[in-house]
Every structure is written in structure tokens, then in C-alpha cells.
Amino acid sequence: MSDGDGVGGERLVGVVLVSHSAAVADSVADLARGLVGAGATVPVAAAGGTESGGLGTSAELITAAARSVDRGAGVAVLMDLGSAVLTVKALLAEGDELPAGTRLVDAPFVEGAVAAVVTASTGADLAAVEAAAAEAYTYRKV
User: Fold this and answer.
1) What is the longest distance spanned by two Cα atoms in the chain?
2) Which of 44, 64, 32, 37 lies closest to 3, judged by CA?
3) C-alpha of 118 from chain center
């Protein structure tokens, strides 16, 4: 796990990746970290599946992941499918489950995660990380 400090001791935005599958969340986190390269280390946590290892989403895993990446610069949470979004929205509505400055980010899961982590690695603030992830909706492949 990262200490959340980038180059020169900058505080970085943390990123949480919520998927119905632990394997998917872990793989996307690994991909995003790998594409940042050898520079800054962004605090990234995967919150995939249920506590028992099954498919689904877990409020407890999401909360633990968000707390683990919180360094006071904000936490961007990206989700894969509908009930993951609903779970994060419910946690945010409760008001005290997730760290202050946690934001649900509407972005494609893989491309958005990469954009969020790469942008966070530059020391960008939470708004810029969210914007970069959301911009991934416009990426064309053909």
C-alpha cells in the first residue's frame, strides 16, 4: 500500500475502484498503477465482490478501501455497475461512513480508472481527477 505521497511529498487524491468482482477490481487497479509508471505512487484500493469472495458489492469493503486511501486530498470512487453505484450513493448519504471529500465519479470503469490514477499521480486536485475520469467517456476507439 502507498503512503499517498507523490514526488516531492505532494499529497495525492486516493482512488477506490468498486466492482462486483474482486478479480476485476484488483486487475483494473493493477493496470492503472502500472500505467502511471515509476513516478508517483497514488493510493489506489480495490473494493470488489463480497466479504465471502462472491460476486456483489459490499458497503464494508468500500468503506475500508476509502479509508485506506484517504490522505486528506479527497477520494475518487469509480464503480462498474448499477448496484455498486447505489451502494456508494447510500454510503455518501449516511454522511459519516466515507472520509470527508469522497466523491462518486461518473466515468467508464477501466478508462476512467486509468485517467483518474494518472491524473492523481501529477498532484492534481479531486476536481481535476474527477474531470479526467469523466472525460474518458469521450475516448474514441475507431
Assistant:
1) 43
2) 44
3) 12
Q: How far apart (Å, rounded) are the C-alpha atoms in residues 28 and 54?
A: 18
| pLDDT tens profile 70-104 | 999 999 999 999 999 999 999 999 989 999 999 99
Compute the Cα dihedral for 64, 68, 136, 109 and give only its sign.
negative
pTM: 0.91
Segments of 4-140 assigned E as strands: 14-19, 44-48, 75-79, 102-105
Sequence-distant (6+) residues with CB within 8 A of 27 are: none
Q: Could you count the other beta carbons within 10 Å of the beta carbon of residue 91?
A: 20
